[in-house]
Each structure stands twice: as structure tokens, then as C-alpha cells.
Amino acid sequence: xxxxxxxxxxxxxxxIVVRGTICRPVQRLWxxxxxxxxxxxxxxxxxxxxxxxxxxxRGRVLDAAVVxxxxxxxxMAADAILLKLLGDPDEKP
Length: 93
Known about the structure:
The chain is mostly helical. Helices cover 73% and strands 0% of the residues.
């Protein structure tokens, strides 16, 4: 249960960095990375797996790869679903 909550938190953190207006100054530093939910999600997940925050029990390197891939995919899916449901705030009417 705790792992599910942590994965949801990683997805939320990724979406805040990618879509949050509070992070616009940071997004301007590296737009190719920080404006892509899949890219940012991968690095957020890799950091969480490598640090031991989320573990699948296979060692830090494999944990980083697995959690990074899962967070990347789930962040991309969550972003696509939210864009479909709520619309793109950056899109001009």
C-alpha cells in the first residue's frame, strides 16, 4: 500500500514540475526535459529508486531502472488523461 502511495506521489510531483505554473522559471532552464511528463517522470522515478525511497527489492540499480520506467509511463498516461479530460491550458481557443 505504501508503495502505491509513493508511486502516486512521484506521478504528482512529476506533473507539478511539468504542468505547474509555479515551476515555470525552472522549466525555462531545461525545457526539453522539464516540459515532458515522460522524461521528467523517468528521472523522478530513477532518483526515487536509486535513493531507496521506492524499492522493488532487486538492488538500487535495478530499482532505479524499474521505478524510473514505471513512473515515466504512468506520468505520461496521467498527463494524457488529464489533458483529455480538462483540456490543455496552454492551447489557444
